[in-house]
Amino acid sequence: MGVIVVSGTGTEIGKTVVTAAVAAAAAARGRTVAVLKPAQTGLSHGEPGDAREAARLAGPGVTGTELARFPEPLAPATAARRAGMAPVAPHEVAEAAAKLAAEHDLVLVEGAGGLLVRFDARGGTLADAARLLGAPVLVVAPAGLGTLNATALTAEALRARSLEPLGIVVGSWPAAPDLAARCNLADLPESAGAALLGAVPEGSGSLAPEAFRAAAPRWLAPALGGSWDAEAFAADFGPAGR
Questions:
Q1: Which of 6, 37, 104, 225 does the annotation list as catalytic?
Q2: Residue 134 annotated as binding?
């Protein structure tokens, strides 16, 4: 299955839970999966990071790896500089992912924040790592108002670097979606020029791992190893009279 880079249109929008869901769906089909977090920021030594959390939710057959950890909740380049630590360069991310890919069926590289957040003083980004890997980029987006512009900009930035978005996943679908969220089911694919490949219900990261693993395939489209149907979901949640 190779390598998939998971990026978001911003921070705190559900990248880790989406990464865990994709990992769980692959593991349920008997695949071995590695989750790679190039730069974990905002956590001290010993605290569980995003890669470990994704592996915990996704369960057996999934491992989590970090390349670097910086204590302050900042962009990786800034956090590394302020901590007096060496940053992570895109070529290091690509090399680590390629090594994991030789040992696993699927490697999921989860970025920090958005696509163009700087990893190092030279301006290296997750997009650069994806380009070096030749890997597709799965874009995680919020459901509601404001997401269309950010998603379109992310897709445009990918294509400007000769990268194609694999698709869009809504990272936290609300229990009571408002009109903007419901309209965005149709508008997100148009804005990004890429398919909508899933919607993870809000609060899913709080599920017990067993419940998370059982439900994860239902949140993802077949392209990501699940059974989610975008048309059926839109029929249930899309705005009346669209």
A1: 37
A2: no
Q: Taking a C-beta distance cutoff of 8 angstroms, is the pair 216, 17 a contact?
A: no
pTM of this structure: 0.95
Q: The domain containing residue 166 runs over which residues?
A: 2-237
37 as an active site residue: the answer is: yes
Determine which helix (DSSP H) or strand (DSSP E) holds 240, and give its type and residue range: none
Within a domain: 242: no
Distance separating alpha carbons of residues 71 and 142, to the nearest angstrom: 26
CATH of the domain at 74: 3.40.50.300
Are 106 and 34 contacting, i.e. CB atoms less than 8 angstroms apart? yes
Mean pLDDT by 10 residues, the chain (242 residues): 92 96 97 97 86 96 95 96 97 97 97 94 96 97 96 97 96 95 95 97 96 97 95 83 44
